[in-house]
Amino acid sequence: MKKPMKKTVKKKESKVNLVVKEETELLDFLLNQKVKSSRNSIKSVLSRGQVTVDGKVVKQFNYTLTPGQVVKIEDNKAAQKQSELVGMSILHEDDDIIVVDKEAGILSIAAGHQKEMTAHRQLNIYAKQENPNNRIFVVHRLDRDTSGVMLFAKSEAVKQKMQQNWKNIVKERIYTTLVEGDVKEEAGKIESWLTENTKSFKVHSSPRDNGGQHAVSHYKKLRSNGVTSLLEVQLETGRKNQIRVHMADIGHPVVGDKKYGSTVNYMKRLGLHATTIAFEHPTTGEVVRFTSPVPKVFYTKTK
Fold it and tell me: pLDDT of 91-129, one tens digit each?
């Protein structure tokens, strides 16, 4: 009796994280790491969008790598799914959370019955490709015209666990902001109480406790050209529009923030970028840290 032929199952390429030790070009790095056996096969992996550098897809074979960067090789299916995302890329994904790098102009979540393709809606579509029952939950939000790191949960339980313990589990939240004028102080602390006007949706600041939400921001000046200044702002509390209001409080509104007093808009967006978030992972308890490179235009406007 003839034996039945065994079905050959093609093995998926697993995700691989590679840390760059010295400056080199991407193709040479992947060859040295023996990701594939030939230059042509590595170029194919690159052209399919399977290679990310610090969470961003890179297809350029002569892309310059610097020490400390993390190169990841995705399986082809994952690369195809991520390539369908518009205005954001996935920095990290596991069974509990998804961390993304959002571009300015993308709404975090729909207000009311809006049909806009928000970050939240895109990630729901992305997750349902694997399982129609999958859902994504927003843990915190970024303004539409603020770019940078944003966190989502893969279950209602994880979302609630993180939001209910947000003050304790978040260890670091850093923003980079481009503001109007020459900030004289090299560093400073801004403290006030914030209340929101329910009609105008504008947040107002009081130097005294007026029953509003207590808000504390710490800033450090990175550079200035006398017309604009680039600041690193670390949040001690995370209130709605906190940085935007606090920058206006010290007389240096965020560039492009007409709502809080800016008179210029060099970039057609807010000069606000969520650079870093560090927090205790909801399952492992380990402190994890994610960063997004500051848009180059922030530096060119302070030369």
Answer: 888 899 999 999 999 999 987 656 788 999 999 988 888
Give the model's pLDDT for residue 12: 38
User: Nearest 5°: CA angle at 288, between 82 and 138?
Assistant: 55
- Confidence band of 143 (pLDDT split at 50, 70, 90): very high
- The DSSP element (H or E) to which 27 belongs, if any, is helix 26-32
How many CA within 13 A on the CB side of residue 164?
Answer: 7
Q: pLDDT category, 155, cuts 50, 70, 90? A: very high
Confidence tier at 193 by pLDDT (50, 70, 90): very high
Radius of gyration of the chain (CA): 22
Give the pLDDT of residue 5: 45
- Token readout for 8 is 């050959």
What pTM value is reported for the model?
0.75
In whole angstroms, what is the distance from residue 292 CA to residue 100 CA?
Answer: 9
Report how far residue 163's alpha carbon sits from residue 140's, in angstroms, rounded to the nearest whole number.
8
Residues with Cβ within 8 Å of 97's Cβ and at least 6 positions away in sequence, in order, are 139, 151, 152, 153, 154, 158, 281, 282
Q: Give phi and psi for 71, each to the nearest 5.
A: -100, 130
On the CB side of 114, CA atoms within 13 Å amount to: 12
Report the Cα 106 to chain-centroid distance in Å. 12
DSSP 137-195: EESS---TT-EEEEEEESSHHHHHHHHHTHHHHEEEEEEEEEEES----SEEEEEEEEE
Q: Which residues make beta-bridge pairs with 147?
A: 273
Strands 203-206 and 187-196: antiparallel
Residues marked as catalytic: 143
